[in-house]
Amino acid sequence: MSFHNLGLSKPLLDALAAKNYAQATPIQSQAIPTVLTGRDLLGIAQTGTGKTAAFMLPSLDRLAANRNIPKPGQIRMLVLAPTRELASQIADSAQTYGRFMRLSVGVIFGGVPNSKSVRTVARGLDVLVATPGRLLDLIDQRALSLRELEILVLDEADQMLDLGFIHALKRIVSLVPAKRQTLFFSATMPKAIKELADRYLTNPAEVAVTPVAKTADRVQQKVVLVNQAEKTALLTMFLRSEQTERTLVFSRTKHGADKIVRLLEAAGNASNAIHGNKSQAQRERALAQFRSGEVSVLIATDIAARGIDIPGVSHVINYDLPEVPEQYVHRIGRTARAGAEGKAIAFCSPDERGLLRDIERLTRQKVDVAPLPEDFLQQADALKRLKPAPKAEQPRRAPSRGFKAGRRADGQRRENRNDRSGQRQEHRSERPAGQRSEHRNERSNQDRSGQPRSGQQRTDRPQQRHPHRGEGHPAHRPEGGRPKPFGGRGRRRPSGAHRAQG
């Protein structure tokens, strides 16, 4: 169906024409007219089918029609996304679609200085895309309020629950007005999402354009049975023999992703890794190099399995099979996008056979088994002897001015003081016992400036009379007079005793 038949305004149609978007996808053609009416929506659609445009286009149209200038620290539309990359991508799409509308768009997520996020929301925004953690941080700092929110969108709702955002979502929903439009979009619909939708959606329209957990039709799937220790050799041989444009490799763990990068570098294959332990700058640089083709291999955890739209991914390799079978559908959905074709290859070790059966049971299709390459064992033995590249040292980040960063800096200073104190104690303990006692005696006979104390001065040089004191002054008596109490000042006598002596 053409976008011209969906009731969108002319500025949006002009923006779509500038991007050469003419025909709407099934999820877009069903969702856009419903959202334009202001009704709540629960959308189920396979990843890569255009869910972002399905909720962003009609929402921008409604915001532009009801032109309310947002107040400082207020927002009109909030889109929640589970990852930084997806949030950034949604914000880019909003700016692209609203280029001919006078609407402000901002994005906030962790990994950037808190002061930058505060500046983003300070003047107020029409559209804010955010991850739940950073959003709650700004609300707690009273830099952001949701009192005037008109539209709430939750994208990739099932992944939100997988990442443990359920408590954050409940708190966010409790802070928004009861009178609002709420849109839920997800690739799958587990029971927990259904319960959450029933709680926060009011008489929603349901749109489901593809069966749940159905893999993309244009993806050619294969599985190779291989031992876990030989997977890196198989990946290296595959990259050497296949004609690939961009290859996305999925690892189960962050440590495993970094190890794959080092092993590929030892074999002469350049690659980058992206996962939760990488800084935001490192993640953005890795994605930019992958998009541009400068580095054609990207090793990722499931952080890149959802919503990351990278054109030209010809191959997806499941180096490790996912423990959650739905993740397999999202992983291979990174290829064969926008009508293109792609290939998905899974490396299955003997202890992953159960995971493979779960995937086939979920997708209701048998994955074809591909044989190992010829003379695989000989080449694998040669590749195993390659030493992985050493770990790159992470650059030390400059401390920010945020509250948490200040606490970390204070803790670091305390650790440095403790280290120096321990070094002094260790230095003292290395001295012999006799030398330590001599050192203490020598220091006790000196004041802070290193000069002998007053008692030693009286024994070394003759006493001098004070010009205004007579011979009878206690300081010049042979016995030295009555000693003063400790502290340098005598005790105050009771007032009655003083009068009696007077």
From TrEMBL:
Disordered as annotated region, ranges = 385-502
Stretches with biased composition (Basic residues): 489-502
What are the residue boundaries of the DEAD-box RNA helicase Q domain, all occurrences included?
A: 1-29
Please list the residue ranges that the record marks as compositionally biased, kind Polar residues: 447-457
Q: What range(s) does the Helicase C-terminal domain occupy?
A: 218-378
Q: Where is the composition biased (Basic and acidic residues)?
A: 407-446, 458-482
Q: Which domain of life is it from?
A: Bacteria
Q: Which residues form the Helicase ATP-binding domain?
A: 32-207
Q: Give the residue spans that cross the bilayer.
A: none
Q: What keywords are annotated for this sequence in UniProt?
A: ATP-binding, Helicase, Hydrolase, Nucleotide-binding
List where the motif Q motif lies. 1-29
User: SMART domains, alphabetically?
Assistant: DEXDc, HELICc
MF (Gene Ontology): helicase activity
State the family it belongs to: Belongs to the DEAD box helicase family.
Name the chain's protein.
Answer: DEAD/DEAH box helicase
User: What is the species of this protein?
Assistant: Sphingomonas telluris
Q: What is the lineage of its organism?
A: Bacteria, Pseudomonadati, Pseudomonadota, Alphaproteobacteria, Sphingomonadales
